[in-house]
Amino acid sequence: MRIITENLTKIFNTRRNQPPIVAVEDLNLDIHPGEVFGLLGPNGAGKTTTVRMLTTLIAPTAGQAFVGPWKVGRDDRQIRQSVGLLTEAPGMYEALSAEKNLTIYARLYNVRDVKGQVEKYLRMLGLWERRADPVGSFSKGMRQKLAIARALLHEPQVLFLDEPTSGLDPEAAKLVRDFIEELESEGRTIVLCTHNLDEAERLCHRVVIFKTRLIAVDTPENLRKRLFGRKVVFHLRQVQPQWVELLRSFPFVEEVSTLENRIIVGLPNPEEQNPVLVRRLVEAGAEIQFVGELRHTLEDVYLRTLQGLGE
Ligand SMILES: Nc1ncnc2c1ncn2[C@@H]1O[C@H](COP(=O)(O)OP(=O)(O)OP(=O)(O)O)[C@@H](O)[C@H]1O
Hints:
The chain is an alpha/beta fold. It has two domains: 3-218, 3-Layer(aba) Sandwich (Rossmann fold), CATH 3.40.50; 229-295, Alpha-Beta Plaits, CATH 3.30.70.100. Helix content is 37%, strand content 27%. It contains eleven helices and 14 strands. The protein has helices at residues 47-54, 76-82, 98-108, 114-124, 140-152, 170-185, 197-203, 220-228, 241-248, 270-283, 298-307, and strands at 3-12, 21-31, 36-40, 62-67, 70-71, 83-86, 158-162, 189-193, 206-211, 213-218, 231-236, 255-259, 262-266, 288-294. A hairpin with a 2-residue loop joins strand 4 and strand 5 (70-71). It is elongated, with a radius of gyration of 24 Å. The structure holds adenosine-5'-triphosphate. Adenosine-5'-triphosphate is lined by residues 12, 14, 21, 23, 41, 43-49. Adenosine-5'-triphosphate binds next to strand 2 and helix 1.
């Protein structure tokens, strides 16, 4: 399912005499069916507010939004049936078993085969053996998995995951990430709010960086290229100034810098241009140990993007 927002805005009117809080302003997004889409932004950027609007938990102040063919504010019942939501602090009945908790929610969602669906997701998330235990006895990771199971019981085509791996140990976090990839392969649209940029980079096709308003939206790769260009690192046995000058003499070379025994070269198209540079360096007597691409992480991109706003 496709998700579209058009000038989506949310303003919270707090206490009297207090200025209103603009949480989300004029947000325009087009999330493609079947993509994993990351919502990135600092604390208070409006990520949760956006998710709450798209899942019909709160009404937009202005603008509009569509989840598949359904319009937020007009078709809320259909939207609730089509979306699954994992919130930051999913509440469960602590004294009841995992199975009982899921059964209650499955009934609430009018799931047809309650028993079958509950079993399917308990098994899928590795909780089947612990199904009779009270949720109060579960670890954080098990609770998170149970919450994911709960969000999936009614087989939503769209899934909103707010910080799905926060507070999980690396093993549990990996399990959840693998599971997200599995859900993606089933063609579901997944919207992921996360502060874990490494995770966003691994899972998301595209990300939006926003802070109340949209700042940038693209694939992590394109954002990286746009902000940093592409850079190639030549590791040499030692660097001679004439090799730096040689590299600078190529018209397509954008910039050259050195760091210890490395020469870093900005190139628009390394696949085409590297072989030429390698050949000329070798001819000039350089001893090349390695050649690699300097990778900027999504974290670099994120921080640089927000810096542009004076963060
Ligand atoms: N119910 C509310 N009443 C008043 N203000 C609110 C309400 N919900 C959110 N806000 C405000 O809206 C802004 C955006 O909050 P939101 O929770 O959407 O941010 P977030 O990007 O999810 O942040 P975090 O990364 O910290 O979870 C904040 O300034 C917050 O204080």
